[in-house]
Amino acid sequence: MRDIKGFESDNFVSDLYAQNVKYYNEQAGEELEFDLLSLYFGEDYKINEQIVIHQPRIQDIINLGEKEFYSIIAPFTSNPTSLKVQLYDLGIYWSDISDFELFSLLIKTLSFESSKIVFGDIDFSSFDLVAKQNEQNEIIPVLYSQKMGFEIDNETFEKIRKYMCFMFDVKLEKEIVKSKSLAAEIIAKERADIAKKNAELKGTTSLIQMISFALNHPGFKYKKDELREVGYVEFVDSIKRLQVYEATKALTQGSYSGFCDMSKIPKEEFNFMRKVT
């Protein structure tokens, strides 16, 4: 094993999510194992008898600090491709490490106190990667914690990651490059992209930008103190829905003005309740 140091009514929401279930299944490439409406309303999600995922409210993130918040969800919403620059700097080619092995390294950095807002009393930093013989007499890697008294196998990890990525709107890609010279070019481009993004966010954060947009938009229904109690999923969905509303409104006004050619614009773009992505 590797060791590295270094919106207006419940009916509206229900109808909207019912329409989107098929779409999200297609996006995920498989059936979703969780209920979208429960996710929207911030219900806990039970992975198994030992692991239950809690959805943080905006106030929870404020209390923890946005930087610390993202650091605790990162191990559950990353893969080797998304962290290829960091792995490359450690001398690891991202195609040479499995998702599960990377996860076993990342959870060692988790703060037990901070991760409580999502995972309760589970100390992920106490888990170690060990070998286990399964029912087919195959040797497989699992994460085991003597402190917690249970193990996490690859199937459980994938179930956690799938839900966490969906909850926090993270879309993972998998990139395999066999040529080492091409890999170096990809790393250089990725570094430039990261630097550009950091420069754009200098002095602010992505969450502050979303909150500022929402609170200053006339269509957002929550006031600042009310927003504190809103779940993360509902908040992000509201931001996307406001963007859909503004885009649809502009198209509708353009169609009435006669200054826009509407013939090439799909009719779905005029639907205020179309699915958000």
Description:
- The protein has 277 residues and is mainly alpha-helical.
- The chain contains 12 helices and 5 strands.
- It has a domain of 169 residues.
- The protein is 49% helix and 7% strand.
- A 3-stranded antiparallel beta sheet has the order 3-4-5. It has a two-stranded antiparallel sheet with strand order 1-2.
- The N terminus is likely disordered.
Number of helices: 12
Query: How far is the N terminus from the C terminus?
Result: 38 Å
* Strand arrangement in the largest pleated sheet: 3-4-5
Let me know the average pLDDT. Answer: 84
What is the molecular shape? globular
Which strand-content bin applies to the residues?
5-15%
* Approximate helicity band: 40-55%
Indicate the radius of gyration in whole angstroms.
Answer: 21 Å
Unreliable stretches? 1-10, 21-29
Largest sheet: 3 strands, antiparallel
Give a quick summary of the entry:
The protein has helices at 10-28, 36-40, 58-64, 66-73, 84-89, 99-106, 112-119, 154-167, 180-200, 206-215, 224-227, 232-257, and strands at residues 45-46, 52-53, 128-133, 139-145, 150-152.
